[in-house]
Amino acid sequence: MSTLEPIAMPENISQEMEHTTDTPVKKRRGKSAAGDAARAISSPWASLAAIVIAVLWTVPTLGLLVTSFRQPRDINRTGWWTSFSDPSAYTLENYREALAPGTSASLSQYFINTIVITIPAVILPIFLASLAAYAFAWMPFPGRDALFVAVFALQIVPLQVALIPLLDIYVSKLGIGASYWSVWLSHTIFALPLATFLIHNFMRELPPELMEAARVDGAGHVTIFFRILLPLLTPALAAFGIVQFLWVWNDLLVSLVFLGGTPDVAPITVRVAELAGSRGSAWYLLSAGAFISMIVPVAVFLALQRYFVRGLLAGGLKG
Fold first, then answer.
1. What is the DSSP letter of 157?
2. What is the pLDDT of residues 91-120, one digit of tens each?
3. Burial of 97 (0-12, 13-18, 19+ CB in 10 A)
4. Is there a contact between 238 and 308 (Cβ–Cβ < 8 Å)?
């Protein structure tokens, strides 16, 4: 019996098959969109562009900080960058004057007013938006998707167009005009669409098997939300909490409309605006007042910054 010998393949055909087999793999490795994006981000030019943008963004803040320690006559005569040659010209007089009592209240009263306004205006939308996000994510009901889109679409409504109608409702119908409740409710209303969107999208990334296992064990919606989901939502809640805290702390318009500018209820932004004087001649005090008002927001951001990027990207890029 004769044995079958393997058929010899021509050398050129073998090389061509090897070439056609290896080429797609190399193309997939070298031509993918993710690979191109990774190489673009990690390139030296991208790093240089990031450094330039960071410098351009930081220089005005540095100038504001230096200006807050300069005397008014020096500010009017020379630029802030010239002060580095004479450090002895720096003074704390601007901060002393900014911290001095105003017309009828000290800066500490405005700080207390701002804290009273900010904390409930952050907690209320987070709590209500978490409940709404859970319903949109894990409780099927008719029209759920359409209602979620409608809630998210409310973000395009400018808050300025709602201030006067809300003020009329608070004063004539609810009787809570010029009270903290009007500011708390207003900030909650304006923040709910974005908060619901971010928390819902973060919640949808959690594995459904987690909820199914809890239901098998007899857990209801309340138990699942408070004992299982709420601890896992910390990054999303912290991310939105930072955004909402900074917005409410730095708000001037909403507080002026619903509370007025009286020192017993006005926030610190009202006091900072008053530092420039009636004709803006004391504008140099604004730099000191701005950095005084920045202390608490910066501390909050530094304390929660590890959650900020993770929670914001997870809630904003996933649909």
1. S
2. 888 888 888 776 555 677 888 899 999 999
3. middle
4. yes
